[in-house]
Design brief:
It is a single chain. This protein is α/β, with parallel strands linked by helices. The protein folds into two domains: 21-172, Sulfate adenylyltransferase (Roll), CATH 3.10.400; 177-408, HUPs (Rossmann fold, 3-Layer(aba) Sandwich), CATH 3.40.50. Helices cover 33% and strands 18% of the residues. The strands form four sheets. Strands 1, 2, 3, 4, 5 and 6 form a six-stranded mixed beta sheet that branches. 45% of the residues are buried.
Length: 429
């Protein structure tokens, strides 16, 4: 039975803005260039392919202020996380001066570049400033500089540029991620190919231990969905995180080894840098997976949280206030290892809470780092083998992010070489 893709993306339609290959060079030719970092490049790609629908570009002031203060766009549609482009005032002034001196046309268009190559055009609609403290306090509920989202916000440049983006040079996604990354249109087609009428999303940035596996299976049964879509977050990493390659390949193994039937499990990736915004980021994750074609999204304890900044189940409670999201939340309590039950146990069932061992923390990391094989009730030996193979192949002998990994890893995306247009209608670059 084919999937009913009448499930509307957020806002009603996917906002896709990718220049036809025959026009891309012409659009990019002669424009002033603004280099963007990896985080912004990933967001450009997500905007262009519709992952962030209904957004088609970086937010202007009205949308940003509305999102910051009320978790809605200026038109009232729910949106919870700012998607903004920041530029140093000096860099923006220099770009504008060079543009004026060269008589560029159209005057409001610039070329965003990454890795020295064209990436996308930006039709500048607005250049403005915004109070970063107000943004941090409202989005994260704190101005604590130890909160990674707050630190990211306070490090923003002072000039924000809003406007629509159009991808002119699609990136190459490198192995092993190339087989898992799909645009929303491609992923919806894949769900149709699998015959899914409904899908429950599992957001992850970890290798799967037994608790994750049980949580996915429980969510699949509780939702009544046809399949589970693992959506692994691939983005900015800090030392001590699991390396991206291990996350993706370990999840794919669960299907390959038969722990899930192949027709009910699919692994994919989302290029996104976690903000650790707790309930707000939970809402964002739900909206993005709605755009990917999911009908349900699972949320566990401390979803997208950090430290003690949010209530244990704040990401559950937020959905009570947002009935119009158009994607159903599947809420789960904590899974742990119980030495009395000698198995993975569920908070809503197990009576040995005082003996619980946290699967998300030291126990699993010690198994991975210590060289001893795990009990299948905590971490499957097949998963451990994949993680250790990834450490050798991708992680400079560590399954966890190290400074060496950050410096030497193969990037997730590579920008192909693109020669800008040299036709007589375009100014020289």
């Amino acid at each position: 039975m084919a999937v009913d893709n009448s499930l509307s993306p957020h806002g009603g339609e996917l906002k896709v803005s990718v220049a036809p290959s025959g026009q891309a060079a012409h659009l990019a030719g002669g424009l002033p260039r603004l280099a963007v970092n990896e985080q912004i490049a990933r967001e450009v790609i997500n905007l262009a392919y519709g992952v962030f629908s209904p957004l088609d570009g970086f937010m202007g002031r009205a949308d940003l202020d509305s999102v910051v203060r009320s978790m809605r766009l200026a038109d009232g549609l729910v949106w919870s996380i700012p998607i903004i482009l920041d530029v140093s005032p000096a860099e923006w002034a220099a770009l504008r001066q060079a543009q004026d001196e060269r008589g560029q046309a159209p005057a409001n268009r610039v070329l965003l570049t990454h890795q020295g190559q064209p990436l996308a055009t930006l039709d500048v609609a607005e250049v403005y400033n915004y109070d970063k403290t107000v943004m941090a306090e409202n989005v994260y509920g704190t101005t604590d500089p130890e909160h990674p989202g707050v630190a990211r916000t306070m490090a923003l440049e002072d000039t924000l540029v809003g406007g629509k983006v159009t991808l002119v040079n699609p990136p190459q996604v490198n192995p092993p991620f190339d087989r898992f990354w799909k645009t929303p249109e491609q992923l919806r087609a894949r769900l149709s190919e699998l015959g899914w009428d409904s899908a429950v999303a599992h957001q992850t940035r970890n290798v799967p231990h037994a608790g994750h596996e049980m949580m996915m299976k429980g969510a699949l049964m509780a939702s009544g969905a046809d399949g589970i879509l693992v959506s692994a977050v691939i983005g900015e990493k800090k030392p001590g995180d699991y390396i991206d390659e291990a996350i993706v390949l370990a999840h794919a193994l669960l299907r390959d080894e038969g722990f899930f039937l192949p027709e009910i499990h699919e692994t994919s990736t989302l290029m996104w840098d976690m903000r650790y915004a707790g309930p707000r980021e939970a809402v964002f994750h739900a909206l993005v997976r709605k755009n990917l074609g999911c009908t349900h999204h699972m949320f566990g304890r401390d979803h997208a949280g950090v430290g003690n900044h949010y209530g244990r189940y704040a990401a559950h409670e937020v959905f009570d206030t947002l009935p119009e999201l158009g994607i159903k939340s599947v809420l789960t309590l904590e899974w742990w290892y119980c030495p009395v039950c000698e198995s993975v146990a569920y908070e809503g069932i197990c009576g040995h809470r005082d003996r619980k061992q946290d699967l998300a923390g030291t126990l699993i990391r010690n198994i991975i780092s210590g060289g001893a094989g795990p009990a299948a009730t905590t971490l499957r030996p097949q998963v451990l083998e994949v993680v250790r193979d990834c450490a050798k192949k991708y992680g400079m002998d560590s399954p966890f992010v190290t400074p060496e990994y950050l410096e030497n890893r193969t990037p997730v995306i590579t920008m192909p070489e693109m020669t800008c247009c040299t036709c007589t209608e375009c100014p020289s670059t």
